[in-house]
Amino acid sequence: MKQKPTQVVPRERLLSLDALRGFDMFWITGGSYLVTVIASYTGAAWLQPVVEQMEHVPWNGFHFYDLIFPLFMFISGVAIPFSLVSKLEKNIPRYDLAKKAFSRAIILVLLGLIYNGVFGNGFENPRFASVLGQIGLAYLFAAIITIYSKSFKNRLYWLGGLLAGISIIQLLIPVPGIGAGVLTPEGCINGYIDRMILPGRLHGKVFDPEGLLCIVSAITVTLMGSVAGHFLRDKKTNDQQKIKILSITGISAIAMALLLSTFYPIIKACWTVPFNLLTGGIGFLLMMAFYWIIDVKGWKKWSFFFRVIGMNSIFIYLFHRFVDVNTKLFFGWTVLLGDIEPVISTAGSILIVWMLLYYMYKKNIFLRV
Predict the structure, then answer these.
(1) In principle, which of 64, 108, 217, 324 could form an S-S bond with 271, CB 3.0–4.6 Å?
(2) Rounded to the nearest 10 degrees, what angle do helices 239-260 and 273-290 cross at?
(3) Residue 95 within any structural domain of the chain
């Protein structure tokens, strides 16, 4: 008796995607600091290596905290096949989708300027580059590539071409007076381009980690996410095949990044290709794990905490920029708790903000761009 083939049920919204986005945002909205204050209060030696992972590397190398930003971009890419390709299949005009992506990018750029305080400082020594601006612009170009590419294979060509192009620019094009392939803050071509073209203040003085070439390079991470989204949405593959594809792709990207890093360093500040491949590879593996646990196995309850955060990610990012939760909500009384005060106030702040997000979730209030 022949076994019936596994029926593939397409999912147009992944609970795992919201959960992974929330997991990512948790660390920059109090999670990383909570680990730090717990380690300080307990004095646990085994937590010290974990604390180190909660900080960016000064330049060359990689810590867990360096993953947060590119993982968010990867996740935004995963959503592209679900939000854009599905509409193309319904014959919604490409121009309308492109116009919406452009509007989204403009809004994120403006929010990034507000986050940087550009308007509040009367344009005095402004910084125009921003995390939100990079997310918006990288998503825009990844969306345009997806909208106007005739096939998935063409999108892969774009991804490969951009990775190759960034490599050539960073390794082979010389910076005047310094030379080619000098990947230091002063010597990398990213900083040279920013100093020549980008107006205003640079975050790193001689370079900006969200500068012009960084934005172009970051498109590749978003496109890698769209590749993951393509496989997750594919109606021709079952869940086991999707898990296998995501796993193999992630491991291959990480292996390639480590191989290239022997002569082409992993540097977040200038978004080198090995950094993109490493974070993209980790993104594939995390997406695979969350998808398998939540959407395939159906173990969903544990992820609700993260899903509530993930469904209002832009709001929580801006909220933490403009609201000092401990001061505004606790009025500073937690100083009476003694040495454990940082632990209590940090955990309490996370809980109170989560309750706000939960209220918004229950009322269907979502800040979407």
Answers:
(1) 217
(2) 160
(3) yes
Q: Which residues face 12 on adjacent strands?
A: none
How many structural domains are present in the chain?
1
Output the tens digit of pLDDT for each of the chain's 369 residues.
Answer: 444 444 444 445 689 999 999 999 999 989 999 999 999 999 989 999 999 999 999 999 999 999 999 999 999 999 999 999 989 999 999 999 999 999 999 999 999 999 998 887 667 788 999 999 999 999 999 999 999 998 999 999 999 999 999 999 999 999 999 999 999 999 999 999 999 999 889 999 999 999 999 999 999 999 999 999 999 999 899 999 999 999 999 999 999 999 999 999 999 999 999 999 999 999 999 999 999 999 999 999 999 999 999 999 999 999 888 887 665 555 555 566 677 888 888 898 899 999 999 999 999 999 887
Taking the C-alpha atoms of residue 191 and residue 99, their distance in angstroms, rounded to an integer, is: 31
pTM for this prediction: 0.92
Range of the domain at 175: 15-362
Q: Which residues are CB-contacts of 2 (< 8 A; sequence separation ≥ 6)?
A: none
